[in-house]
Design brief:
- The chain crosses the membrane at residues 12-31, 37-56, 68-87, 107-135.
- Keywords: Membrane, Transmembrane, Transmembrane helix.
- By secondary structure, the chain is an all-alpha fold.
- The protein has one domain.
- It has helices at residues 5-30, 37-58, 62-97, 103-112, 121-133.
- Helix 2 (37-58) packs parallel to helix 5 (121-133) and helix 3 (62-97) crosses helix 4.
- The radius of gyration is 18 Å and the shape is elongated.
Length: 142
C-alpha cells in the first residue's frame, strides 16, 4: 500500500520538530545557558520533546500521540515563561544601569536587551510542529 501525502507531511513535521529541538539545544549549549537551575529547564523541555517526538515517529500509538500533545503543551507554557523571564531580566538590567529610565525606554530594553526575547519561542515552534504532526493521526482512531 502506497503511503499517503498526509503520511509524508506528518513525517516531515515530526522531523522538523526534532531538528528544531536539536538546534535549540545546540544553541543553548553554545551560549552556555546552564549557569543556574532555572537555565537548565529548557534542556529538560528539549529532552522531553525529542523523546516523545521520536517515540511517536517510530511507534505511533494512542499513548505516544497523547504524550507528544501533553509535552507540546508543557513546552509552549515553558516557552512563554522563558519569554517573560528574558524580558524581566532585560528590564532589571536596564534599571540597574539607568534607575530612572522612562517607561518607553524600558519597554524597548525589554525587547532588545541582552537576553533575546524570542529565543524561547524556538522551543514553542518545535512543540507546535510536533503537535501539528499529531493532527488527525490514524493512531487516534484505535
Amino acid at each position: 500500500m502506497a503511503a499517503s501525502v498526509e503520511h509524508f507531511y506528518r513525517r516531515f513535521l515530526f522531523g522538523a520538530a526534532a531538528l528544531t529541538f536539536g538546534a535549540a539545544g545546540a544553541e543553548l549549549l553554545l551560549v552556555e545557558h546552564y549557569a543556574d537551575r532555572l537555565q537548565v529547564l529548557p534542556f529538560v523541555m528539549i529532552g522531553l520533546g525529542l523523546l516523545t517526538t521520536a517515540w511517536a515517529w517510530r511507534a505511533p500509538s494512542l499513548r505516544s500521540i497523547r504524550a507528544v500533545r501533553w509535552t507540546a503543551g508543557a513546552v509552549v507554557l515553558g516557552s512563554v515563561a522563558g519569554i517573560v523571564l528574558h524580558a524581566k531580566g532585560n528590564v532589571e538590567f536596564a534599571l540597574e544601569v539607568t534607575p530612572n529610565e522612562p517607561l518607553a525606554s524600558l519597554i524597548w530594553d525589554a525587547v532588545s536587551g541582552a537576553s533575546p526575547l524570542l529565543a524561547p519561542g524556538m522551543l514553542a515552534l518545535a512543540a507546535i510542529l510536533a503537535a501539528a504532526a499529531t493532527y488527525r493521526h490514524p493512531a487516534l482512531a484505535d
